[in-house]
Amino acid sequence: MKPTQQAGEFILPKRLQGLKPTLIRQFFERALPDSINFGLGEPDLPTPDFIREEAARITLDEQNGYTSHAGLPALREKIAEQYAHLNIGASDVVVTVGSQEAMTAAFLALVEEGDEVLLPDPTFPAYEACVKITEGTPTYYRLPAEKEFAFDIDEFKKAITPKTKVAVVISPSNPTGKIFTENDLRQIAEALEGTGIYLISDEIYSDLYFGERPHSASEFYERTVIVSGLSKSLSMTGWRLGWLATSQKDVSKAALVLHGFLTVCTSTISQKAALKAWTDEAEAAKQEARDIYAKRGRFLVDLFKSELDLNATEPDGAFYTMLDVRSLGDDIEVAEKFLQNRVITVPGVAFGKEAKGFLRVSFCNTEEKMAEGVRRMKEAIG
User: Fold this and answer.
1) Contacts (Cβ under 8 Å, ≥6 apart) of 116
2) What 8-state DSSP symbol labels residue 317?
3) Rg (CA), the chain
4) Strands 358-362 and 320-324
5) H-helix or E-strand containing 297?
6) What domains can be seen in the chain, in order of their start residue?
């Protein structure tokens, strides 16, 4: 029965009940001064100079009023061209305030009360929150820890039910750094074909890969909604420049209406400067970032083994590894020990049951800082 609201009393709407900051933020906010941050997934590399200089020029030289709700046509064209296999145009792209808004808009456009949304386990915790806001039900397919969190088609298939409305893939993955292979994505497409289920493909890390460029799920499954942006690939987290792109016109239209009421439009200055993201300079900057993060990831995984005798997953992309701390005890308790010794990590349980006993560790740090962080971790566990 719905609670009766008394005069002057505030009752939180059901869709918001139980929502709270993630463990990622909780550990970060409690960090001691001078902590080494292995917690947040934010690039430490600076935004490339050519983008910053362009933004400064735009600010000084141009009038920067509202754009259309959907964003600058020239920018939407650039984004659409990135997905040539979809044969989409500017009208199929919505420029959003980061990929987080694109993600939320996608869920609000697709999910109703009672719908199930199939998420990977481990998963980025914002997905579960978005599902609950839409009053849908989050369900999960395992990325088994015993297989280093690789995709398992049998786990995916058995998690699909008649109530499944949307499934989600994140590749490269936050939190595991693993990439869904071409075969994985083909298997997903085959499993979903004819079901009417929509697929949300989170590709925010798609430019951060350490081998072959990852495929987009949209290459294999028509009912795919792509969520992406420039935050990770060009160190533009604070610029809040993301997008939603899809060949499913009803979805993009619904997302556009939501976006217009939520934010009107993304920052005009960020949009204009972002046009530089499809240039030779930008490709060089992305390659430099890939090289740096690949080297750091290898360095950190090796360091965990040599200094702590602990195994960590080999990252395929993004800037995360999963550190196996099951031999040390509960992951929250281990992360707490490290926090008290001025090292921020994230307990794996923040990302789902499958990651319990692991810590997500970001390598958005210099090798010098990471070495100091591991030294402090070693000190904390005696």
Assistant:
1) 136, 137, 138, 139, 161, 163, 164, 165
2) B
3) 21
4) antiparallel
5) helix 280-303
6) 14-47+281-380 (3.90.1150.10), 65-278 (3.40.640.10)
Report pLDDT digits (tens) over 47-77: 999 999 999 999 999 999 999 999 999 999 9
* Kind plus residue range of the DSSP H or E element containing 319: none
What pLDDT is recorded for position 221? 98
Q: Decide: 269 and 250 in contact? Cβ < 8 Å.
A: no
CA 149 → CA 55, 120, 345, 369, distances in Å?
A: 40, 10, 19, 27
CA angle 57, 79, 182 (to 5 degrees): 135
Residue 379 in tokens: 């000190």
Q: How far apart are CA 161 and CA 138, in angstroms?
A: 12
CA nearest to 296, candidates 213, 180, 378, 177: 177
Asked whether 304 and 311 are in contact (CB, 8 A), the reply is yes
Model pTM score: 0.94
Phi-psi region of 314 (alpha: psi -120 to 50; beta: other; left: phi over 0): beta
Tokens coding 21? 């900051």
> Letter for the amino acid at 77?
E
